[in-house]
Amino acid sequence: MQRPETAIDKFFFMGILNPMRTGRPPLKEADRRTEDIKIPLTASEKKMIQSAAQLAEEKHVPWARAILVAAAERKLRKANGG
Hints:
With 82 residues, the protein is mainly alpha-helical. It has a domain at 41-82. It is built from three helices and no strands. The protein has helices spanning 7-17, 43-55, 60-79. α2 crosses α3. The relative contact order is 0.05.
């Protein structure tokens, strides 16, 4: 006689038998962001950055990173006569 399958059996064994990994695939090494900069802000400066990012429908950290990197690129181009 075969034992009836229960929901807990499916849930428990699915993790053991399913070789699929969860989460996003690993990033290429060139795309990994492993460095950071800590920038002290006032509460109002942080709120202003968060509000501007929200208007752009982005999260504040990627939004601020893009703004900062673009400003650095402009500064370097200007310094190099470009």
